């Protein structure tokens, strides 16, 4: 079994004998110490992923902004801030996280299709690097609010380049039918409007075509479309200082083979150089590729139920902890934390299970048709669970959100305590 086991997240995620280790820490020990469900993130894996981008950008003008929607735990954010990264945020709440860790708001890009006035005011007050504006009404509002505050807002327009990122429809964002960005055909007119507004300073252009992209071609197509626009916009005397290519690469969940960050960045620079645009400052906002395979979700097997059509392995993690399977039919690896002893008759031979949670929904599943040799009380690790997992967790069924632990080279720290039921209804009251 050890030989065939696929472990995305290696070399930080490793099987040593029967035991699964992340960044030098035995996962079963963490589950025993902190309980389950439990998220565990490797700081070493996150640093390695970030450095792959940073090194590829070395020597070129750039700003790397971690898209914190992927995983916004403060300890995760601090890991990237310490490496000099800025942040891509999409809400006032995410901005408060930047401030809470003492990171530099001047390295923040504020994305998002619907920004509230209060969020904009706060971002103006702390001085973010750039607002990635998604519509003309947003531009007008931003100008008004900036002028009222005696400021000028640096902006980039998110242009919808209409390229197919060939990813899941829910996470494809750069097509004409998506709600995001300003249409390519309207971009020049909106830039001219921006240049005329008193509270606005145009600094860049941006796009984001989707997530879990596993080839380079869609990025280069989008860049070509942006560069065509840059020429047209600058012909109107409006300078574009930076180009922001949006999110980062996809990751390996099962058999995907995405290029590495270096390959992507080198291809992008080659395209810029080829078009005589190598002097431009480049921004990127990777999320998933920095954290996805740095994390696992640990869960305990509660009950096994053999049905007429299916066998169910009911675990203590559920769709509220990790919604990606239910929401996108996402496939995540599921492996035992400790392999059973084949010589021990108490250890069941492998059987095919649907791994499901306790939530009252048929859509509450983590993996379907998985061959696993497990019994109640055993621990499983759901792999590739560092991105869009805890950050999308909910309290459905009044389930307290999982605790989070960070590991680094054999050491571990609890970076978020397990919620209590009392915390969940602390803001509520009865009405008599
Ligand atoms: N920048 C913008 C403007 C974005 O909208 C996103 C992701 C990113 C950057 C980061 O993209 P990444 O490097 O992570 O691909 N919940 C979905 C993914 C939604 C992604 C939304 N935008 C999932 O679990 O697959």
Explain what this protein looks like in three dimensions.
The chain is an alpha/beta fold and 432 residues long. It has 2 domains: 13-42 and 292-424, Lyase, Ornithine Decarboxylase, Chain A, domain 1; 111-286, Alpha-Beta Barrel (TIM Barrel). The protein has helices at residues 27-34, 43-57, 74-82, 92-100, 117-126, 136-148, 187-196, 217-234, 261-274, 288-291, 324-328, 421-424, and strands at 13-16, 19-22, 25-26, 38-42, 62-67, 86-89, 108-110, 130-133, 153-160, 182-183, 200-206, 242-244, 281-284, 295-306, 311-315, 334-336, 351-356, 365-372, 379-382, 403-408, 411-416. The strands form 3 sheets. Strands 4, 14, 15, 16, 17, 18, 19, 20 and 21 form a 9-stranded mixed beta sheet that branches. Helix 5 (117-126) packs across helix 6 (136-148) and helix 8 (217-234) packs parallel to helix 9 (261-274). It is globular, with a radius of gyration of 23 Å. The structure holds ligand LLP. Residues 67, 70, 88, 111, 171, 208, 211-212, 246-248, 285-289, 324, 328, 388 line the site of ligand LLP.
End-to-end separation in angstroms reads 60 Å
Strand-residue proportion: 15-25%
Which fold name corresponds to the CATH topology of the largest domain? TIM Barrel
**Would you state the CATH class of the largest domain?**
Alpha Beta
Shape: globular
Taking all Cα atoms into account, the compactness measure Rg is 23 Å
Helix content: 25-40%
Number of strands: 21
